[in-house]
Amino acid sequence: MKYVIGIDLGTSAVKLILINQTGTIVEEVSKSYPLIHEKSGYSEQEPEQWVEKTREGLAELVNKFNGNVTDIEGISYSGQMHGLVLLDESHSVLRNAILWNDVRTTAQCKQIYDVVGKERLLDITKNPALEGFTLPKILWVKENEPELFAKASVFLLPKDYLRYRMTGKIHSEYSDAAGTLLLNVGEKKWSTEICQLFELNEELCPPLVESHECVGTLTDEFAHQTGLSPETKVFAGGADNACGAIGAGILTEGTTLCSVGTSGVVLSYEERNDRDFAGKVHYFNHGKENAFYTMGVTLAAGYSLSWFKEVFAEHESFEQLLDGIDEVPVGANGLLFTPYLAGERTPHADPTIRASFIGMEGAHTKKDFARAVLEGITFSLHESIEIFRESGKVIEQITSIGGGAKNETWLQIQADIFNAKVVKLQSEQGPGIGAAILAAYGAGWSSTLQEIADLFVQQANVYEPIAENVEKYKELFSLYQDVYKQTKELNEGLSKFRR
Ligand SMILES: Nc1ncnc2c1ncn2[C@@H]1O[C@H](COP(=O)(O)OP(=O)(O)O)[C@@H](O)[C@H]1O
Ligand SMILES: O=C(CO)[C@@H](O)[C@H](O)COP(=O)(O)O
């Protein structure tokens, strides 16, 4: 029997899965690491933590594995997107990674529009200038830490840095490069024009490969530390959302994904590189060669729930916290939550907005709050579905993955708010499975990604929308949408009091 490993370098943890040739997950290991929030709007991580935790996790995985390690044919990656890792000439890390959910770069986004022009930026990158993307972070470091920036020889995205440490080879691949605002997405090459406009040496951008391409094998040192064979082939991998899509079988036109990790996304497959969404949703290269996807993002999706748990139910598990929320009626007894804990991306690209609970009263219990949090996150995701539907897409079925897909009541809430069938897969670890599919495809297990996805992606359950709930949620959604408008100015006033 042959095996592959999928590594999902998430925001909250690195999740490792070992899958065999029949698509069965044989072993799983997860190792978490912290976020560093030095100031309001800042979000960083230490790249060394990603490497250490992956090393520890792989050693544990190999230790639990009963077979022969030389039968593990390949490893590939799925990674949190957009994070900036800067390396010096000797490829040492220059500072903490600045992550996708860090919103310190509003001034740099404005600078990008002023210098490149909004239309031209959309022509080249297909995306607007958003705080979370990589180019604004590069410009922030250039402006605020010039001495450090002068030492930078190359930038890497999070999983590309991890792969570098495991192989000694520097690369990026199209699906993650698409989230930097430095890639010409349609033409699949770094934009010389954008690099020149910001006086960035193009060598700062790593060489690009396809997601399924083999970039080398493990270094002897890494193989020795984990117990893996130094012959194990390493494949480039993809952005977590591209891998989540592969791992959920989103490989043809008309298929849609909802993923609730730390962030939340609604993603739809695109065959073409020339659809015009005017920057309302992200438009990125897929991990499948020459394909694309469009995507709306809720910055604090799972994060809103984990924040709520940490602050108000520290000693409870997610299962305990959510136990009984199916008994709370639709609308959480008149309580509405907007999940803007870290600002928002879709449909409001707004780093200043913050979250609200509206309608609190003395009779509300923790269960009402927990249900309101789940509903608020789902309303935010529904805003992206509305954009897709308005553009003419027909969305009748959505595959739901990520930590959020562990809860049955939440999946029913998704079906009712989205007014679509929601499919739960046997494993909610879509991005890790997508990474494993890329490794299996790269290793030649089949001639198409689709064939491997058909084998690896297994449905567990389908949640049908309940008509009565759909109607109630339509009314609540319109109230939810009002909260942004009504709290925008209030939050601008409050922003000077923040840390
Ligand atoms: N049992 C559960 N029920 C509902 N949500 C859960 C459960 N366990 C985890 N989650 C949610 O999933 C999120 C983590 O999802 P995951 O896909 O692992 O994230 P990431 O890839 O960002 O590290 C948590 O923030 C939490 O909100
Ligand atoms: O910024 C985005 C997508 O544009 C996020 O989706 C990140 O890619 C992080 O993902 P998770 O850790 O939440 O899965």
UniProtKB/TrEMBL annotation:
Annotated active site residues, numbered on this chain, are D240
Residues crossing the lipid bilayer are none
Q: Where is the Carbohydrate kinase FGGY C-terminal domain?
A: 257-442
Task: Output the PANTHER family linked to this UniProt entry.
Answer: SUGAR KINASE, XYLULOSE KINASE
| Annotated substrate binding sites | M81, H82
Report the family membership: Belongs to the FGGY kinase family.
Fetch the CDD domains from UniProt. Answer: ASKHA_NBD_FGGY_EcXK-like (cd07808)
Provide the taxonomic classification: Bacteria, Bacillati, Bacillota, Bacilli, Bacillales
Which keywords has UniProt assigned to this entry?
ATP-binding, Carbohydrate metabolism, Kinase, Nucleotide-binding, Transferase, Xylose metabolism
The protein's name = Xylulose kinase
Any GO molecular function: D-xylulokinase activity
Outline what the protein does.
Answer: Catalyzes the phosphorylation of D-xylulose to D-xylulose 5-phosphate.
Carbohydrate kinase FGGY N-terminal domain spans which residues?
3-247
Q: Which PROSITE patterns match?
A: FGGY_KINASES_1, FGGY_KINASES_2
Q: Which residues form a coiled coil?
A: none
Query: Which Gene3D superfamilies does UniProt cross-reference here?
Result: 3.30.420.40
Q: What is its EC number?
A: 2.7.1.17
Q: Does the keyword Translocase apply?
A: no
The top EC class, named as a word, is transferase
Reaction catalysed?
A: D-xylulose + ATP = D-xylulose 5-phosphate + ADP + H(+)
Q: Please name the source species.
A: Metabacillus niabensis
Residues at the site labelled Important for activity: D8
